[in-house]
């Protein structure tokens, strides 16, 4: 395995931290900049919204640029975004910093995922993509708790100082150790969107969108939810995020294994159903911490269990556009995060954070409906076959 793949993994780790760290320190940002929790939550919304839109668009616009050069340029822009964040004197400036970071971060993740398989032997391509994806996973397991600890000890800007340092190191190492990587032709955006004319694809991608929206309605505000309902502070919050991260990464493995054993469709339906039950059960477990942690672990595992199964389902549904479907699914995922964090903020502003799990569960119910619509032909076929056998 080419060791340079691990450089790309570090870049994906850093970008993953920037996108997700806000959720753990929302209350600190809100208090320091004198804004509400809902307004602070919109910092997640804008990041994920730009991520969803910019990712495929920028990849097309920069299709002719040599990849190493483009990655370093994107890292410099990403660095500027984080410096703005660190020194932001107001909510408006911080918002601008998030926009800059999101725009460059969206391109960086796609560049890492496309560069990794191109710099290794063909037999290692799948493993190279997996290693880069591990960077995002690691940002959940390690990045969020570390960032949360730094935020509680030194203020909410401290995690972004760490990210700034890691970004500088990434630029230096990529400059000296990464070779030139030739660009590859990209699929026009119109052709990508045209694949959504397929009902199965459209409702499959909608399932990812609604599922992540339902998840983020609560997850984006997990820190204030835990503080309000369980009365926990400090290190306990970090432990909760660490357990959630471990469960989420484990869930990815569980989902992939189940997809191979019982099929992608069944895995998707099981994941969505169990996930919905877990998230709606959360408010009823806050009276007893061990019970809350058990349900939260199930929630975290099912959150990622759907991902490999959905990717497999989309690729099998449209093999000729499998690469396009992965890109669109990534956009649907981040669009779901953006909408979920926005809705979660509205719920907090208009009602109470204690209602967030119920709103999230409602969106997950819609996700189950779109999954069933996407798979209707298969289930309709099986039901007709059973009917014919009975008639015979």
Helix-strand blueprint:
Layout: H1 4-20, H2 26-33, H3 37-61, H4 67-86, H5 91-118, H6 125-154, H7 158-177, H8 189-194, H9 199-219, H10 222-229, H11 235-262, H12 264-281, H13 289-317, H14 322-350, H15 356-374, H16 376-391
Can you offer a commentary on this structure?
- The mean pLDDT is 86.
- This protein has 16 helices and no strands.
- It is mainly α and 392 residues long.
- It has helices at 4-20, 26-33, 37-61, 67-86, 91-118, 125-154, 158-177, 189-194, 199-219, 222-229, 235-262, 264-281, 289-317, 322-350, 356-374, 376-391.
- The longest helix has 30 residues, at 125-154.
The CATH topology label of the largest domain is: Growth Hormone, Chain: A
* Low-confidence residue ranges: none
Helix content: over 70%
Largest β sheet strand count, sense and barrel closure: none
CATH class of the largest domain: Mainly Alpha
> What string gives the helices and strands in order?
HHHHHHHHHHHHHHHH
Structural class, by secondary structure, is: mainly alpha
Number of domains: 2
Supply the CATH superfamily name of the largest domain: MFS general substrate transporter like domains
How many H/I helical runs? 16
Structural key phrases:
392 residues, mainly alpha, Growth Hormone, Chain: A, 2 domains, 0% strand, globular
Task: Give a short synopsis of this structure.
By secondary structure, this protein is mostly helical.
């Amino acid at each position: 395995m080419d060791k340079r793949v691990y450089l790309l993994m570090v870049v994906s780790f850093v970008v993953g931290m920037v996108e997700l760290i806000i959720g753990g320190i929302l209350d600190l940002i809100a208090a320091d900049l004198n804004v509400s929790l809902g307004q602070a939550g919109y910092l997640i919304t804008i990041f994920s919204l730009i991520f969803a839109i910019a990712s495929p668009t920028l990849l097309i616009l920069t299709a002719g640029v040599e990849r190493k050069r483009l990655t370093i340029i994107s890292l410099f822009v990403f660095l500027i975004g984080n410096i703005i964040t660190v020194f932001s004197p107001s909510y408006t400036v911080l918002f601008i910093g998030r926009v800059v970071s999101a725009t460059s971060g969206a391109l960086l993740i796609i560049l890492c995922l496309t560069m990794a398989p191109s710099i290794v032997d063909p037999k290692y391509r799948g493993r190279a993509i997996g290693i880069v994806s591990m960077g995002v996973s690691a940002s959940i397991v390690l990045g969020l708790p570390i960032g949360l600890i730094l935020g509680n000890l030194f203020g909410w800007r401290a995690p972004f100082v760490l990210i700034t340092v890691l970004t500088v190191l990434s630029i230096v190492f990529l400059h000296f150790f990464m070779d030139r990587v030739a660009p590859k032709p990209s699929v026009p955006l119109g052709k990508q969107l045209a694949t959504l004319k397929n009902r199965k694809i459209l409702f499959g991608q909608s399932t990812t969108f609604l599922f992540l929206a339902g998840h983020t309605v609560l997850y984006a505000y997990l820190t204030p939810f835990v503080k309000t309902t369980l009365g926990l502070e400090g290190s306990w919050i970090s432990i909760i995020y660490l357990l959630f991260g471990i469960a989420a990464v484990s869930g990815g493995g569980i989902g992939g294994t189940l997809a191979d054993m019982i099929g992608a469709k069944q895995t998707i339906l099981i994941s969505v159903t169990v996930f919905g039950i877990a998230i709606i059960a959360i408010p009823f477990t806050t009276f007893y911490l061990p019970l809350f942690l058990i349900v939260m672990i199930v929630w975290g595992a099912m959150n990622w269990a759907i991902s490999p199964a959905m990717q497999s389902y989309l690729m099998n549904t449209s093999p000729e556009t499998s690469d396009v479907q992965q890109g669109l699914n990534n956009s649907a995922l981040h669009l779901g995060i953006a909408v979920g964090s926005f809705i979660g903020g509205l719920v907090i502003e208009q009602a109470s954070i204690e209602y967030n799990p119920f709103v999230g569960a409602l969106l997950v119910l819609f996700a189950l409906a779109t999954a069933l619509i996407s798979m209707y032909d298969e289930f309709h076929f099986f039901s007709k076959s059973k009917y014919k056998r009975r008639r015979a």
